TrEMBL record:
It comes from Candidatus Thiodictyon syntrophicum. Residues 84-199 form the Glycosyltransferase subfamily 4-like N-terminal domain. Residues 217-378 form the Glycosyl transferase family domain. Transmembrane segments: none annotated. InterPro entries: Glyco_trans_1, Glyco_trans_4-like_N, Glycosyltransferase_grp1. PANTHER family: SULFOQUINOVOSYL TRANSFERASE SQD2. Pfam families: Glyco_transf_4, Glycos_transf_1. One of its GO terms (molecular function) is hexosyltransferase activity. This is Glycosyl transferase family 1.
């Protein structure tokens, strides 16, 4: 059995879904997955830095393609989008389809996994129509909860979900949204709750070179890792920082990652006169990620649901921090309530309330015993959520779905 994984967000690009797909590929049986991914970034359209080196070392086959850029469709008015679709996206899609058809034949593909509902389902539908190959859609959360700017795209999403042969949900929350918002039958959903690579994310000493790089000697470090988008609650942590500093004067907020919300966050840091207490690291290489988690006293991401219902599908970063024996603070929104066991592996707070966030951070920063006990419990829990255990479940699903393949006479 061999699965073609069509992923518009795949390493070396950062992002939760990319990490999940990489884990599935790494831990699946050899030659059971073939990845089809773009060599351009899905937002900027620029060539992805280091993709050739990544592919050479990946240990599983990857075919790179030129793919449509999501903003071409989403950031413009509807007539403009339709015109761009015909002039730009359609020729690109035909080329991708041609590559996929050749791959399916050459690699003897039995099923397709669509990794991005909104931008990828067309390929699953086309391959099923042409070659009779069934397809699965992998669902994280925000792509089904966030309201689309155009009603037509919202409706299309519903059709995509119903047309798929099977769906994967990364959390109970995501599974519930599929059922409640889209009327998907429970039997159609396979739950593969996100796991963490515990062979990489594990406790260890702090790296003095990193302390020196950021000038953090003697600081109590609060850390957030993630794409800098509004729902992650970094803005609220910044608003909480002045009152945290009153109780913990040597607190320092280290923010790892890049994203569209960064200019807003930097403005907030200036407006609140927090420059000496906050460091933006920008994008850091994967090789340095674990060292950043080890650096912190406390991991914080008080995520919240935005007005357009954009919310966290799970919150992989909480597991990563826990796997390094760090206590975490999360928001009570989306799937984060499953990723964090309140009072056990960390604290869950109302991410819309600055005083609640400040109180939780001060509580854990000033109580070493409590914080360390939560970190230890977090480590135990993370060790039971290994990403390596997810691959066999995914493989079994692919095998089951592949049996429904309909042979075409051509
Ligand atoms: N190396 C590196 N990794 C980064 C960086 N920034 C984020 N990451 C990694 O990217 C992943 C999480 O990215 P997020 O931005 O926090 O998540 P997301 O893309 O919103 O992820 C979505 O899918 C996840 C997987 O199912 C969900 O867990 C998450 O809630 C959300 O729905 C984590 O593995 C994190 O370590 C960076 O600068 N450098």
């Amino acid at each position: 059995m061999k699965c073609l994984m069509f992923a518009s967000i795949f390493p070396p690009i950062n992002g939760g879904s990319a990490v999940v797909y990489e884990g599935l590929c790494q831990f699946s049986p050899k030659d059971s997955v073939h990845v089809l991914a773009p060599w351009r970034h899905y937002v900027t359209g620029e060539e992805i830095e280091g993709w050739r080196e990544y592919d050479a070392k990946a240990g599983f086959p990857i075919t790179r393609i030129e793919l449509l850029r999501a903003p071409v469709v989403s950031s413009r008015s509807l007539p403009q989008s339709l015109w761009l679709h015909l002039a730009v996206d359609l020729p690109l899609k035909l080329r991708v389809l041609w590559t996929a058809v050749k791959l399916v034949r050459k690699e003897k593909i039995d099923c397709v996994c669509i990794c991005e509902l909104n931008s990828g389902t067309w390929l699953g539908l086309a391959l099923r129509r042409l070659l009779g190959i069934p397809f699965i859609i992998y669902i994280h959360g925000e792509e089904i909860t966030t309201e689309s700017s155009y009603r037509i795209f919202g409706r299309r999403r519903r059709h995509y979900l119903h047309w798929a042969d099977a769906l994967v949900a990364v959390s109970q929350f995501t599974s519930r949204q599929l059922i409640d918002l889209y009327g998907i039958a429970r039997e159609k959903i396979t739950l593969i709750i996100n796991g963490v690579d515990v062979s990489y994310f594990r406790p260890g000493p702090t790296d003095p070179a990193l302390i020196e790089r950021y000038g953090l000697t003697g600081k109590r470090i609060i850390l957030t890792v993630g794409r800098l988008v509004e729902r992650k609650g970094i803005d609220m942590t910044l608003r909480a920082l002045p009152s945290i500093l009153e109780r913990v004067p040597n607190a320092h907020y280290l923010i790892v990652g890049t994203g569209e919300f960064e200019p807003e966050l930097r403005r907030l840091v200036e407006d609140l006169s927090l420059t000496p207490h906050v460091t933006f690291t920008g994008r850091i290489p994967v090789t340095e990620l674990v060292a950043h988690y080890r650096l912190c006293d406390l991991f914080v991401m008080p995520n919240r649901e935005l007005d357009n219902h954009d919310t966290e599908g799970f919150g992989l970063v909480f597991l990563e921090a826990n796997a390094c024996a760090k206590a975490v603070i999360a928001g009570v929104a989306g799937g984060a309530v499953e990723a964090v066991r309140h009072g056990e592996t960390g604290l869950s707070v109302d991410g819309t309330r600055v005083p609640a966030i400040a109180a939780a951070i001060v509580d854990l920063l000033t109580d070493d015993a409590k914080r360390e006990a939560m970190g230890q419990r977090g480590l135990e829990v993370a060790q039971q959520c290994k990403s390596a255990d997810r691959a066999p479940v995914f493989h079994a699903l692919c095998a089951r779905v592949a049996k429904t393949r309909r042979r075409r006479w051509w």
